[in-house]
Request: fold
Amino acid sequence: MIRPLAPGDEDAAARLLDAEVAGRRQVRLGEVHDVLALPGFVADVGGQLVGMATYAVEGERAELAVLAVSDTHRRGGIGSALIEAVAAAATEAGVSDLWLVTTNDNLDALRLYQRRGFRLSQLRPGAVDASRRVKPSIPPVGRYGIPLRDELVLVRPLP
Reply:
């Protein structure tokens, strides 16, 4: 079940973010963001929070700030459902584009985002290297043994 993120979800959401995306404080485009301070949606399976997405409306655009799904519930449509919930909320807010930032090693997410209508918009070479100065806990090597160096910006036009 996909539902809006509620104040009572904060502890479970923080645990999910710690486990799946290295915490609620994310660094992208050179800035630190508390993604749990934003509105969003959660995926609840049997009373357990197994996924979440938050977003920020910025003028005529909205950012998908974080998408996290527990590894035991991936590839079952939860990520897609969360993206669509954010897209619907952003459309209702009157924005024209939904955008996000991911890293060069995040191949599974790149596959998901492109299947959900996002297109590569920008490559920011060395951006993760710069972010590591702000958040030293960012590892030098990411998923699949890929050196973690660059940020990718993806954009999805909204109706």
Observations:
- The first helix runs from residue 10 to 21.
